[in-house]
Amino acid sequence: MFTKILIANRGEIALRVIRACKELGIETVAVFSEADRESLHVRFADDEICLGPPPSRLSYLRVTNIIAAAEIAGADAIHPGYGFLAENAGFAETCAASNITFIGPTPEQIRLMGDKASARKLASELDVPVIPGSQGAVEDPDEAASVAAEIGYPVIIKAAAGGGGKGMRVAEDPGSFAQAFQLARNEALAGFGDASVYIEKFLGRPRHVEIQIMGDQAGKVMHIGERDCSIQRRHQKLIEESPSPGIDRAMREELGNRAVRLAEHIGYVGAGTVEFLVDRDGSYYFMEMNTRIQVEHPVTEMVTNFDLVKEQIRVAAGEPLGLQLRGNQLRGHAIECRVNAEDPFRNFQPSPGTITTYHPPGGPGVRVATHIYAGYTVPPFYDSLLAKVIVHGRTRDEALSRMNNALDSFIIEGVTTTIPFLQRVIQHADFISGDFDTKLLEREPDLLTPAT
Ligand code: MV4
Question: Which one of 64, 83, 115, 398 counts the least CB within 10 Å of its CB?
Fold first, then answer.
């Protein structure tokens, strides 16, 4: 087992990893930017090293500084958390070259799944259903147009190096295809330094259902249930839950087995997520794979009682998967709401500043993942996640009731938060019934105007 882990991250996920290390008896090293000196991850870690100025490209993204910090502190492994360097294959390579274990998949696995066109190609070769579309990337505009005609309109053009909704264009009809294709390529080049794009049939009202998987170094991969992440705004997830109200036991097993087949084929090590779009007629399609621990992982932890972060560390140290799902049963229902320092009624404009009052919700089945406290100043440099409220109940109704009460009693003053907006969403008839999809917020603009 490792003796000391450097956490190459900040905020709530850094605290989450530190807790897992403490339970495993592993020492911790926090790294921080000049804006995060007063952060709790710095206080709770055994060692602390400043990386540089506040902007992340000068601190949390500085590979050489992070590796130097690990060497100085004597860390034998690095946990990247999510975001920042978590899906950077070059960083994972540099760790290996410096004799430091990167807690996550191999550089090759990160690279393969990071190229969304190659991931799609691999999935289809393994009989994991993919959305009808091009075989890999297409360069030639005429060839692309004939692929689009073949699959039928509307189509969506996606950047191979994109993912998570970045670099996508929809073409409704043949007349708008050539321009959309050109724009998508230009945006892909500008945004990712790679103009490669691929084409898919555009699904109008899909659900986003993702399968949590975990693999060990002996080649064993298991699936650990799904999360429904359909409630999103501009590709930012707002609410996640497990199990998904849109799929049944048989479908869960089917998606899980497909996800495992894909991951096993590449000898996937660590925690990963295989994303699917599920259409209203029950057909499902592979979309992409994320090679990191995700923000919403606690939802899965609540319905399984697993500690996914501890398990990531154990498998990275070469131990076999210690998780066991009895009869693949998920226990009860969990929901997560992400609370951000943003003004939901002013186009989600960021609201950094100092927290004057803080009181978290509590009670049975309520978990709050946060790094904030009264007196903490939310810096303007990073994403605006303040806290995740995760509730568990025996039924979805019980979980929903707990979430309503939790949001009601969550007091954060000094910055504007998205809590009032989240309350409205979970009180919407379509959310309550479970009959929702990725277009819910677009269909309901009233959710975004202040109550009168
Ligand atoms: C799609 C789609 C419809 N059809 N692909 C958005 C995130 C990125 N991973 C892919 N995304 C989508 N891909 C086809 N062929 C609709 C979306 C999409 C979406 C997906 C999941 C959750 C929220 C979404 C919001 C808008 C669009």
Answer: 64
pLDDT (0 to 100) of residue 325 = 76
How far from 408 is each of 207, 340, 426, CA to CA, in Å? 28, 16, 12
**Distance from the CA of 233 to the center of ligand 1, in angstroms?**
11
Centroid of ligand 1 to alpha carbon of 379 (angstroms): 30
How far away, in angstroms, is 277 Cα from ligand 1 center?
8
- Ligand 1: residue of 230, 438, 443 to mutate (most ligand atoms within 8 A of CB) is 438
Q: Considering only CA atoms, which residue is closest to atom 23 of ligand 1?
A: 438
Residues classed as catalytic: 292
pLDDT value of residue 38? 96
The full set of domains in the chain, from first to last, is 4-103 (3.40.50.20), 132-201 (3.30.1490.20), 207-448 (3.30.470.20)
Ligand 1 pocket test: pick from 115, 134, 151, 156 the residue with the most ligand atoms within 8 Å of its Cβ: 156
Contacts 24+ apart (CB under 8 A), 398-401: 398/332, 398/333, 398/365, 399/241, 399/332, 399/333, 399/334, 399/335, 399/365, 400/335, 400/426, 400/432
Whole-number Å distance, alpha carbon 10 to ligand 1 midpoint, is: 28
Q: Mean pLDDT in each 10-residue stretch from start to end of the chain (452 residues)?
A: 98 98 98 98 98 98 98 98 98 98 98 94 96 92 96 95 82 96 94 93 96 97 97 96 96 96 98 97 95 98 97 98 79 98 96 98 98 98 98 98 98 98 97 96 89 70
Spell out the long-range contacts of 261-264 with Cβ–Cβ below 8 A and sequence spacing 24 or more.
261/126, 261/127, 261/128, 262/122, 262/123, 262/126, 262/128, 262/286, 262/289, 263/213, 263/215, 263/221, 263/289, 264/215, 264/219, 264/221
Nearest CA to ligand 1 atom 10: 165
How many helices (H) does the chain have, and how many strands (E)? 15, 22
Instruction: State both tokens at 122.
Output: 């691999």
Q: How much is the pTM?
A: 0.96
Which pLDDT does position 328 carry in this prediction? 64
Residues having CB closer than 6 A to ligand 1 are 131, 156, 163-165, 200-203, 206, 208, 232, 235, 277, 287-288, 438
Contact 309, 252 (CB under 8 A): no
Q: Whose CA is nearest to atom 16 of ligand 1?
A: 203
